[in-house]
Fold this protein.
Amino acid sequence: MTRQIILGMHLGNGYGALPGAWRAPGVDPTNYVSFDAKVRHGQAAERGKFHFLFLPDGPSLVADIENEPPHFNLDVMLTLAAVARETDRIGLIATGSTTFNAPYNLARQFKALDLMSHGRAGWNAVTSSGEDVAANYGARLPSSAERYGRAHETIQVVQALWGSWGREAWVHDQATGAFANADEIAPINLRGQFVGSRGPLYIPPSEQGQPVIVHAGGSPNGHELAGRFANAVIGAAFSIEDARAQRTAFRDAAERAGRDPDEIKYFPGLMTTIASDRRTALDRRIALTQRTFPQRAAYLMQILGLRTEAIRLDEPLSAAQLAAARPSPQDPRSAHALKIAREGWSLTDVLAHGVIDYHPVIVGPAIEAADHMQAWFEAGAADGFWISPDIYDDGIDAFVDGVVPILQERGLFHQDYAGSTLRDHLGAPAQYGVDPRAMR
Amino acid sequence: MTRQIILGMHLGNGYGALPGAWRAPGVDPTNYVSFDAKVRHGQAAERGKFHFLFLPDGPSLVADIENEPPHFNLDVMLTLAAVARETDRIGLIATGSTTFNAPYNLARQFKALDLMSHGRAGWNAVTSSGEDVAANYGARLPSSAERYGRAHETIQVVQALWGSWGREAWVHDQATGAFANADEIAPINLRGQFVGSRGPLYIPPSEQGQPVIVHAGGSPNGHELAGRFANAVIGAAFSIEDARAQRTAFRDAAERAGRDPDEIKYFPGLMTTIASDRRTALDRRIALTQRTFPQRAAYLMQILGLRTEAIRLDEPLSAAQLAAARPSPQDPRSAHALKIAREGWSLTDVLAHGVIDYHPVIVGPAIEAADHMQAWFEAGAADGFWISPDIYDDGIDAFVDGVVPILQERGLFHQDYAGSTLRDHLGAPAQYGVDPRAMR
Ligand SMILES: Cc1cc2nc3c(=O)[nH]c(=O)nc-3n(C[C@H](O)[C@H](O)[C@H](O)COP(=O)(O)O)c2cc1C
Ligand SMILES: Cc1cc2nc3c(=O)[nH]c(=O)nc-3n(C[C@H](O)[C@H](O)[C@H](O)COP(=O)(O)O)c2cc1C
């Protein structure tokens, strides 16, 4: 079978990736608390045969709350519980902190989601990296070494708990009265420097055995953690070179951990505003983000090495400015930003291209998104992508109806789900019991 | 308005309260992992206008797993998420440990459930009391004083986080672009001896403001905790006198905490096997529990002060045994057990009456359950009951179709839900912001 692109859909706060999405015409401003909305968005992605939903999380209120919604779901597990009940095939990946959760609590809830979804659950194991998060737990943020030390132990304990029921442990034979085979259910008795658990868990295997481990990040400690445990990495990269280097770093880390590098899939992000033409798409993004442009223009000038006085948002940079511009090596987006500025767009339009957004941004026809993904995929920079539409309500549909068919025609994307579990979708084997490699 | 009985439905492992429920004819042995089953059971209770579902929890595997299922849900929060989506009115109470959860995690997940269910969530705050549970968290069980000290702080922090968004904080006005009113969102900055949090939470009020606090238990420390914080208590009592004493203890504790004692509702448990006549009901219970009878018979003899040799399960106690019997004051069930034995039933039938079950047991026609509840309710021994049917699949329906109409005819039970939130159902006022009484 030829290798194909794997796609994940970002599900955040119910509105979309752009700060003004909650105010857009046709968007219900109560989507933040609406599980109907989240289910609808999950179903829209499933209609497009997306392999998984990705729900980031950070237990803190960090938004400019007077003007913008929080970034995340009310609760990622409850959202996925609702989506699990009302979808059939799409994978369900939620973020859970290894620093601020007990392993037993992570193990039981993700495994319950896995049973509930018939084998579609994944755990994005992150260490949490903000003092604001730590403060909500009445703590200071531990050092990176400590956080990653605890993360390694936590994932080991969680996986051991998941594996504490063997594949055939759950007999439930009404005729003989055998509910379970106790020989296949064992305590784990793990005790590390940071966490421990006796076990066993009380939950039998799911259709995929146990949930998939995912990691999001890109620090050297993150490479190490993902290399050892993860089947998928949620990444962020602004160029093919950057993405390829990241993907290679994760693959190398997997090899160092004694694994086949193909076991770890790397997914950089992509933000999308899909419209019939560039102008329409730019205008849509302007409406959704304009409020932030004065501040962003100043930042843009700065990373181009230009003075920030007298910014004229409605005009292109002058020939003198373009000549003087020096893209900052501190910001990987600056070279691309200058390239767009040189095309002669007004400063507003340059910003509307998303040149200083969190990920590469497609602002235009569906084919541009398809071309972008094909180029990155074929250059070995990605195994797939996680997509952040500008507005979920119609942005998912625009992608599904516009981009997906192009990828399918090119043979780059599956026509339908081949399997039923998240492990099937990622090409990861089912996991029963404890993977001995993970216990070293 | 006259006082009426409040009813809760116990939702445990998907099968029912009796150990053999999973093997009963017509029961799907996979109900343990089936969220369809839990939803069906929740809907059945809602059809009967039950005020709430009660999901106990204890993060441990304690069952005789070769023969019997675990007692609890795979995950109480995910179960209630599914039920919330597929019911409209019934209250949703899940158990969450104050000892083995961070307050911020409890706060976010219960409040998210509250939004998801449009104001129907309740948190049964318990301290957890088994070394088996503690071991799953890599810990020893803290002393009672420590557990309850942490419980008081945890509930305070959770309630403060729930109240960290004022009633009108969430503006979400698309026209003006005001997402929230930051003046009504405040950090909580609580730091106790055991737990702390900075806050604020990132979740606006629900239709009932915030979830209801429930407690289950009956130790003096539990009275104190419930008296201060709880609107409802899940109890266990074997006689009217016992229940009345417990109810009074909780009401007194509420008064000591400066509250109106009517703010705290006391619900003893009731197990039911409803059938057209006693014999049919006994046979049903025999089929579901017989396996345990040899062991239980020995215990029964013991609490009656009788020798345990040569137990004849199929015969009544002899005249000599009945004459020699001395109910043990150590077990509150022994007097009632002797009364049933004196009626001349075989030892098997005596046990099938549930004389040594966890709660009083109704084994017979619906009217007996109605009479029991009326007597307790009118004697001031209960504000309502939580019901544990033998088998959920048909036992909930038997209660709803048999017992509920009798209670309604007698004017003891509502004809329909009067309000839409759990606070409405319990007669508790909506709670916005922080209740200053709770912060003392
Ligand atoms: C694409 C991407 C997504 C991330 N998602 C989350 C998230 O949902 N929650 C979270 O706490 N951290 C998230 N992170 C942060 C990382 O887990 C990690 O903390 C960060 O990269 C800093 O690295 P370090 O903590 O290893 O030093 C994400 C990082 C990236 C690059
Ligand atoms: C009816 C009833 C239900 C209970 N439900 C739970 C439960 O679901 N989870 C739990 O951990 N403890 C539960 N408990 C135990 C109590 O929370 C408490 O730990 C127990 O009564 C022992 O008291 P103490 O811990 O205050 O000494 C329950 C107790 C009673 C009486």
